[in-house]
What we know:
- By secondary structure, this protein is mostly helical.
- 71% of the residues lie in helices and 0% in strands.
- It is built from ten helices and no strands.
- Helix 5 packs parallel to helix 8 and helix 9 (221-236) runs antiparallel to helix 10 (248-260).
- The protein is globular, with a radius of gyration of 18 Å.
- The protein binds fe (ii) ion (2 copies).
- One fe (ii) ion binds next to helix 6.
Amino acid sequence: xxxxxxxxxxxxxxxxxxxxxxxxxxxxxxxxxxxxxxxxxxxxxxxxxxxxxxxxxxxxxxxxxxxxxxxxxxxxxxxxxxxxxxxxxxxxxxxxxxxxxxxxxxxxxxxxxxxxxxxxxxxxxxxxxxxxxxxxxxxxxxxxxxxxxxxxxxxxxxxxxxxxxxxxxxxxxxxxxxxxxxxxxxxxxxxxxxxxxxxxxxxxxxxxxxxxxxxxxxxxxxxxxxxxxxxxxxxxxxxxxxxxxxxxxxxxxxxxxxxxxxxxxxx
Length: 267
Ligand SMILES: [Fe+2]
Ligand SMILES: [Fe+2]
């Protein structure tokens, strides 16, 4: 079911045939000033390589088809970003994708990373649209990109449940340990960036956190968290309700919101 939901919601578009809109000088300057373009392209390329490797070793034909489709979409994300960068006259050093060594670990790292980052990306994208940080023409072009990340995280959590269920108890414990480690590595990396940002050091390594910093520094942490919760739910709502949803990050954020009380700390 999770594979069919994934493959049946594929969208056919070619980033090379996009007609990039004319952008106002002010918008161009704002986009050029964002510090994360090289990292963003590299992240998508690395994602494409990691997912491709997993597709190559997957033996179930239906699961392999879905994973190969995701690899195609990640590579398309890199091409879409490169199209925008070129249109804006931004030059980035030729990014090389990190080559994964172990297919399953690479896929778990990548899926856990996406589950974590997409939660914030959904909210930031909405804020970028609402505040006019990105003009509507660009929001329209990038909406399928964001939508695809929702499909990817939905696929990943269901794939992980399916994979765990098909393993022997010992192998399953090892698999779950790897999943938990991947999530912890991602969370620690993001926490480090958040601390660096709060100290005033732009990291450049982490485009989700940098994006928040660049889009609107005055936004309260509470509003950001609430927007991320609402947007994540909205993005995942259209898919079959019998499929599992990522719950860990929303749960942690809800908990943090409750412990924050009604304060509106800015980030
Ligand atoms: Fe992607
Ligand atoms: Fe993705």
